[in-house]
Amino acid sequence: MNYQTSHTSQAFPELLKNWRKKSRFSQLDLALEAGLSQRHVSFLETGRSKPSRYSIQQLGQAMNLPASEVDILMLTAGFAARTSNRNWSEATRTAVNASINHILESHNPYPAVAVDRIWNLQKANSAAGVFFQMLGHDGDPNMLRALLKPGKVRKSLNNWDGKVQSLMRLFELEVARRPNDHEAFELLQELNNLPGASEARNLTTKEDSPPLLTMQFKLGQDDITLFSMITTVGLSNDATIEDIRMETFFPADESTEQWFQQNIALHL
């Protein structure tokens, strides 16, 4: 993501005030949480005081903002964004990449992928490559679009309507956390405009939602049911690192486990 081009047109005082209200903080509560005085927060929101990098970082942490949104606060205040690959030491880059590779490859023969904040594929383990090929994945780098757009992958996904509702709801929540991420908003609009998406989202069901969201695929005569876990870097002030997500898929039943042992493990 290019945070320079995703810069909001709002001035810092207005942006801070909007985030405070969205986070449901009073000026006093935010000041206490950020370790600042209420008067200082008030002056920042009216423009009577100029923020420091430290105060912006404290405010962002207090409101639990994504690192990318803290960077935008920095930019609107006239500072450089904290996120920059140039700030990564070689040791940090090596450690992060090694950790991602370890998680992905250790998960074979089950699929595992690393994606960014809008689910663009960054890395995949060997099992994922084989499995996606068997599903008929056309190489679309965005995993949400690959699942939801018309094509072989969508056709193989059982109960597609229900999955659209769940996946879009999750993505909408993520986009809501990043109101200045224009790329994410544009993807959300694109997904909403996919054939059948709006109809599927408006479907109602009397059935209770299952406790676990599973992905159920049909490959030939075989039914494959997977659930996933998502891993992120624990603490980071860099949006590039914070946005990395590793999604590991697990068999949800014994027949799926046997299918992967028989059909994927042999190809690795």
Automatic annotation (TrEMBL):
Q: Which InterPro entries match?
A: Cro/C1-type_HTH, Lambda_DNA-bd_dom_sf, MLTR_LBD
The organism named in the record is Kiloniella spongiae
Q: Which GO terms describe its molecular function?
A: DNA binding
- What name does this protein carry? HTH cro/C1-type domain-containing protein
- Pfam families associated with the record: HTH_3 (PF01381), MLTR_LBD (PF17765)
Task: Please report the stretch or stretches of sequence annotated as the HTH cro/C1-type domain.
Answer: 16-70
